[in-house]
Specification:
Layout (H helix, E strand, L loop, with lengths): L5 H8 L18 H22 L2 H21 L6 H4 L6 H13 L2 H6 L2 H28 L2 H17 L4 H9 L3 H19 L9 H22 L4
Helix pairs in contact: 2-5, 3-5, 7-8, 10-11
């Protein structure tokens, strides 16, 4: 499935794949995320000092300006399609800082208490903005639409959370405990069907099968990880 050798494998083990466009998405495109989150972990002490030294709103505003400026710089430099640049931690700095501010301030209760229709409007507006940016500006629009992508996704999450206890909400809550395991393996399942089953192509009729297989493997993979993890 993946034509990657020991050099790509070692780039994961020794963590230098975050600096190599050749290796950053090796063994699955989803693994770009690991490089980005490791950058945040390594620099967390600096972010902690940054958030503590400013008011909540100013910390979010400054980090947002840094992220937008970085996105524009990447586009201007011609690296909009280059993963090690368009997924560098500065691209998502404002989201990381926002999470820290929300955790410290306890405003999550306020966000959850807002009316459902407000999130419906926010989600619709955000996804329209994303569509227009990508449609009209291609890779450039895709690189600078993170704010709208984030707002749209969070709005959908809160909409599902506020739905009455029904099948959709139960399904999402069932996935939640093994969602990270599902994230880790879903692209492998997709690539398996694309390369092995469908001979390098992908067609729509395979998507329901991929979804079911990913859920099953993700569920049992999570059980395996729980067995291997130290128990408190």
């Amino acid at each position: 499935i993946y034509p990657h050798g020991i050099d790509a494998y070692m780039s994961h083990i020794l963590l230098y794949k975050m600096f190599s466009e050749k290796f950053v998405v090796s063994f699955g495109a989803q693994f770009w995320f690991i490089s980005t989150i490791l950058q945040f972990y390594l620099l967390y002490p600096l972010f902690n000092l940054f958030v503590k030294s400013l008011s909540s709103y100013l910390a979010i505003l400054v980090s947002l300006l840094i992220s937008i400026s970085y996105s524009i710089l990447v586009v201007q430099a011609g690296f909009a399609e280059t993963r090690i640049w368009n997924s560098f931690f500065l691209q998502y700095l404002w989201e990381f800082v926002l999470g820290m501010v929300v955790a410290r301030s306890g405003i999550i209760d306020i966000l959850v208490s807002l009316k459902l229709w407000k999130y419906l409007i926010l989600a619709a507006g955000s996804y329209v903005a994303m569509y227009l940016l990508v449609k009209n500006f291609g890779a450039v629009g895709k690189n600078v639409n993170d704010v709208f992508s984030f707002l749209g996704y969070v709005s959908i999450v809160l909409i599902v959370y506020k739905l009455p206890a029904g099948s959709i909400r139960r399904f999402v809550l069932w996935i939640e405990p093994f969602s990270f395991s599902l994230f880790l393996i879903h692209y492998f399942v997709y690539d398996f069907f694309r390369v092995v089953i469908n001979h390098g192509r992908m067609t729509v009729e395979y998507f329901p099968i991929i979804l079911v297989v990913s859920l099953v493997i993700g569920y049992y993979y999570n059980l395996l990880l729980m067995q291997l993890s130290p128990q408190k």
